[in-house]
Hints:
Number of strands: 10
Strand order of the largest sheet: 2-1-3-4-5
Radius of gyration: 20 Å
Number of helices: 9
Structural class: alpha/beta
Amino acid sequence: MSRWKHVVVGDVAAGSLCAAFQLDQQNATLGEVRNFRDDLSIGRIDRLMEGTDERFAWFSRITAGTEFGEEIKDWLSPSLEEAYGKILTFDPRDRIVIWHSGIVSEQVTLRYLVSRLAGHELWEVEVLTDATGACTPQELLEALKAIRPISKERQEQFRKSWEVLLLSQSVVRIWDNKRIRSVEETYYDQQLIDASSSVYQSAARVVGMVMGTTNQIVSDTFLNYRLRRLIRKGRLEAKGELTTLQSFEVRKRT
């Protein structure tokens, strides 16, 4: 059994890496692909080393009253338990490869994993694109050629960076000038307002415009939450039921 264990963030990245290994079954680092299914760019992380209760409570709060909020109780808690339990449980002899790129969710995850997996043999693959999941299997194989151990000095830098993140109760993090920066929950609010117009348009369209124009990678779940907050604060007007992005329209206040 191969001792190589590859940790990636998200379903798309995991699928692409599995496909890459199918193309190159003789690869020297061929091994199990572990999918860490959590987005650490949003939500509370200051108590993450103690458990996932705070994260589950935060996701439950921001999705309350939506269709997604009704579903979340059934799958999110077990999903978090698996992500932070089985997925991150390794044999002491394993060689753990952490894949990361220049997006904030993968950068935060890199620091968390290096801190959590102290004492293990840690390696890294840096993907020089927007996101690991944006790569083709062939591009991932090319990136894999530059695999390298994470030096003790580099591990210490990541651990110190993680400790700084733990000092903040911020629920939004961005990648700014090659560093992680904690920002206010309202960080995307003005972008949502700017994407709205004086006539009603689909909430999905407004959120999609922000996702397509911002220089960050941010989930539609979080933008949906902030859009509904702007409506409740009277900064935007809406018609329809605020249950899904497809079920209501939004416009600037007239």
